[in-house]
């Protein structure tokens, strides 16, 4: 992210039941990652619009109102103010399943025996506060391998901050992370967080899944775990490829699935699999047959 220019955030408040639709609309309208947070039972969607002129931002606001959202005042954040921004959002140290600790960059590292994951989100999705990210982290901890698995690789599709892929590395799911996101801000965030955790030498990060998959297949490898916290349409499109790249006994964690999308995605999943239902978004855990 360019430190010379502040980030201008467009913010839209809506009913949580409409947040998935409006988030997708904002992402398409701006070409940027949308961050969602919950305040007093309402969803607040934030997206960077600094690349848009005043007229385009005004039209975006008018369209947001016409779709039923409440447009909040724009927020201008200097590069040096990101810590304050995320503190206001309630992002602080937390523990996943009493095992792995997620600690913001601006907090002290705790003296613990369990794995510690350091994180700075900037404007990418994935702090662990959202129910989809939290469920994925919980499943990674619950099913963590006994000992390290040096032969396996990890795919984090739609990496955002890189939190899920980094967690999988920390928990011993593999020795190499392949992280993909089509948002340049997310790619930068993943790279920065890998560096923050001393794992930048154990990763390949990019925006083109096909290119990364080709490079991966040249090594005749398979993924031990595939993580995809994305939208339902993306899951349906790529699920056959992800499953094909998964090693026997490997796991696939799919999240970000709305109730409306769940039945369709279940029909695409080869059994056996488990569904973890939440209020708004659901997660599918699938382990590939060993033979």
Automatic annotation (TrEMBL):
Keyword Transmembrane found: no
CDD domains, per database record: AdoMet_MTases
Signal peptide: none
Organism: Leptospirillum ferriphilum
Protein's recorded name: Ribosomal protein L11 methyltransferase
GO BP term (any one): methylation
Keywords (A to Z) from UniProt: Methyltransferase, Ribonucleoprotein, Ribosomal protein, Transferase
GO molecular function: protein methyltransferase activity
SUPFAM superfamilies, per database record: S-adenosyl-L-methionine-dependent methyltransferases
EC number assigned by the record: 2.1.1.-
InterPro entries xref list: Ribosomal_L11_MeTrfase_PrmA, SAM-dependent_MTases_sf
One Gene Ontology cellular component: ribosome
């Amino acid at each position: 992210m360019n430190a010379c220019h502040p980030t201008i955030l467009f913010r839209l408040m809506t009913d949580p039941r409409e947040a998935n639709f409006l988030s997708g609309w904002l992402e398409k309208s701006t070409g940027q990652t949308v961050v969602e947070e919950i305040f007093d039972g309402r969803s607040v969607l934030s997206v960077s619009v600094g690349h848009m002129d005043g007229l385009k931002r005004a039209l975006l606001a008018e369209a947001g109102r016409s779709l039923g959202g409440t447009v909040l005042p724009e927020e201008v954040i200097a590069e040096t103010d990101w810590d304050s921004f995320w503190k206001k959002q309630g992002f602080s140290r937390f523990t996943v399943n009493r095992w792995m600790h997620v600690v913001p960059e601006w907090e002290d590292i705790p003296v613990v025996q369990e794995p510690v994951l350091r994180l700075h989100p900037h404007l990418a999705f994935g702090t662990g506060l959202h129910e989809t990210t939290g469920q994925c982290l919980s499943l990674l901890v619950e099913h963590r391998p006994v000992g390290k698995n040096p032969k396996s690789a990890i795919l984090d599709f739609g990496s955002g901050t890189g939190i899920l892929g980094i967690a999988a590395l920390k928990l011993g799911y593999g020795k190499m992370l392949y992280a993909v996101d089509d948002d340049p801000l997310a790619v930068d965030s993943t790279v920065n967080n890998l560096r923050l955790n001393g794992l930048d030498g154990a990763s390949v990060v990019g925006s083109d899944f096909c290119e990364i998959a080709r490079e991966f297949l040249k090594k005749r490898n398979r993924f031990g775990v595939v993580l995809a916290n994305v939208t339902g349409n993306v899951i349906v499109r790529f699920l056959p490829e992800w499953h094909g790249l998964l090693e026997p006994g490997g796991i696939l964690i799919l999240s970000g699935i709305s109730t409306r999308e769940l039945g369709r995605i279940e029909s695409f999943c080869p059994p056996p699999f488990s569904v973890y239902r939440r209020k708004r978004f659901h997660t599918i855990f699938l382990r590939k047959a060993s033979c």
